[in-house]
Amino acid sequence: MPRFATIDVGTNSVLLLVADRTPEGRFQSVVERAEITRLGRGVDQSRRLSPEGMEATLSVITAFAQEARSLGAEGIAVSATSAARDAQNGAEFLQAAKERAGVTVEIISGEQEAQLSFASAHMDFGSEAAGPLLVIDIGGGSTEFIYGNSAGRVDFRHSYDVGSVRLTERFIRNDPPSTEERERVEKFLRDTFASLPPPPPTAELVGVAGTVTTLYAMQHRVDPYDSERVHGGTLTRAQLEQLVEQLFRTPLAERCKLPGLQPKRADVISCGALVLLEALRALRLEQCRVSDRGLRWGLLAHRFGASRT
């Protein structure tokens, strides 16, 4: 079977997917890896990628590309999202990735990011959905909302400049965050999401990316992380409300020890959890399905699928 790879370079993490394409046109995972490199540290204020963030991210991209080639990948597609979009020195990062890793990184727009995330969720949940399918992709720098149907048609998509890293850097100064800081984040999210159109009746929400999978792993104490136990699970609004309360009252040193939470994600997970909770409130939904797959799977189908998405 032909083998391909995608590398998703986000504001907070870098993800690798190596997969075989079956004769039926579906993809089977061979290797999946994730490393938190925080490419987007400080970008919200400085509009520049930091030397530390770039170096950590370039090292991981190089290692992931080498692994994909050693596994026989015929092609490698690499995408970068919010941090690279916003940074004035994004071109410098792209050139360094080409020189060091031998890959061409494509900076995709928020709209493209939304489309690819929806394509990924639709592959897994589209046939199950009794009605319209909604997707939320919570990243470090941006959050995408996509409304579509079970046939895969997208009716609405929008990318908002809110994410776990961006909100933490913009609003949080205390450890643990103060009540006033939390209230400012909540108000900002309520105001931001007020422009969302109401979801169609019977719509099902699917959440993708690390914030959502981490919250599910914490809620169900999936430690060490196991994608098979996470993918397809459900988080309720009541569970999220409890998680948010716990996260905002717990100092960072203690958050780092919570089961299911990667220590490198502990400083930004509180704001990430608020994004998902406020999204559910804005959409007036009571639960969210959880997808362990995301943009990297949509990119795989788009670039290497038998029929382009």
| Physical arrangement of strands within the biggest beta sheet | 8-7-6-9-11-10
The tally of beta strands, per DSSP, is 11
Q: N- to C-terminal separation? A: 20 Å
Helix percent reads 40-55%
**What is the radius of gyration?**
18 Å
Stretches where pLDDT falls below 50 for ≥5 residues? none
Order of helices and strands: EEEHHEHHEHEEEHHEHHEHHHEH
Quaternary state of the chains: single chain
Protein described:
This is Ppx/GppA phosphatase family protein. It comes from Hyalangium rubrum. It is a single chain. By secondary structure, the chain is of the alpha/beta class. The protein folds into two domains: 3-107, ATPase, nucleotide binding domain (Nucleotidyltransferase, domain 5, 2-Layer Sandwich), CATH 3.30.420.40; 111-291, Exopolyphosphatase. Domain 2 (Nucleotidyltransferase, domain 5, 2-Layer Sandwich), CATH 3.30.420.150. 44% of the residues lie in helices and 22% in strands. The chain has 13 helices and eleven strands. The strands form two sheets. A six-stranded mixed sheet has the order 8-7-6-9-11-10, sandwiched between helices. β6 (133-138) and β7 form a beta hairpin. The longest helix has 20 residues, at 51-70. The relative contact order is 0.16.
Set down the secondary structure blueprint.
Elements (H helix, E strand, L loop, with lengths): L2 E7 L3 E9 L5 E10 L6 H4 L4 H20 L4 E6 L1 H5 L3 H12 L3 E3 L2 H16 L7 E6 L4 E6 L5 E7 L3 H8 L7 H15 L10 E5 L1 H10 L7 H4 L3 E3 H13 L2 H4 L13 H15 L3 E5 L3 H10 L5
Helix pairs in contact: 2-4, 5-13, 6-12, 7-12, 8-12, 10-12
